[in-house]
């Protein structure tokens, strides 16, 4: 099925974002692992896997629309130097991804591509109710418990 070129381009921009987030989470997870923060390693490694799944869904949709998935492009990564900065950087990235998803959902609505819209709504729900929520909660715990107590709970 030949898709709309503007939607395919927008999906490729989303794909770049998901792949970039996957890379950032991958490195942050390995940093947590190196520091002995096993709970954070497990969760952020899982987030990296989730981003790969999101990317796979976008690739499948782009291919279905007879587009060419751009799996080579990446946005600049924001690698943190400590736990709090890493969590902040990941949350900022998730906010950006959510905003981009909302914009492309609106584009799909305007172009009457409801199937692509529905796929993106699932990704947005996952981003908002899982990724963003968890990161916001971790930063809230740091504020309430203090960084040292939080870090002890992550070993």
From TrEMBL:
Annotated residues for binding of Fe cation 2: 51, 94, 128, 131
Sections of the chain in a coiled coil: none
Keywords annotated in UniProt: Heme, Ion transport, Iron, Iron storage, Iron transport, Metal-binding, Oxidoreductase, Transport
Entry-linked InterPro entries: Bacterioferritin, Ferritin-like, Ferritin-like_diiron, Ferritin-like_SF, Ferritin_DPS_dom
Top-level lineage group: Bacteria
Protein EC: 1.16.3.1
Span of domain Ferritin-like diiron: 1-146
Keyword Heme attached: yes
The protein's name: Bacterioferritin
EC top class named in words: oxidoreductase
Residues reported to bind Fe cation 1: 18, 51, 54, 128
Role description: Iron-storage protein, whose ferroxidase center binds Fe(2+), oxidizes it using dioxygen to Fe(3+), and participates in the subsequent Fe(3+) oxide mineral core formation within the central cavity of the BFR protein shell.
Reactions catalysed, as given in the entry: 4 Fe(2+) + O2 + 4 H(+) = 4 Fe(3+) + 2 H2O; Fe(2+)(in) = Fe(2+)(out)
SUPFAM superfamilies cross-referenced by the UniProt entry: Ferritin-like (SSF47240)
Similarity section: Belongs to the bacterioferritin family.
Gene Ontology MF term list: ferric iron binding; ferroxidase activity; heme binding
Gene Ontology biological process terms from the UniProt entry: intracellular iron ion homeostasis; iron ion transport
CC terms in the record's Gene Ontology section: cytosol
Entry binding sites for Fe cation 3: 46, 50
Keyword Heme: yes
A matching Pfam family: Ferritin
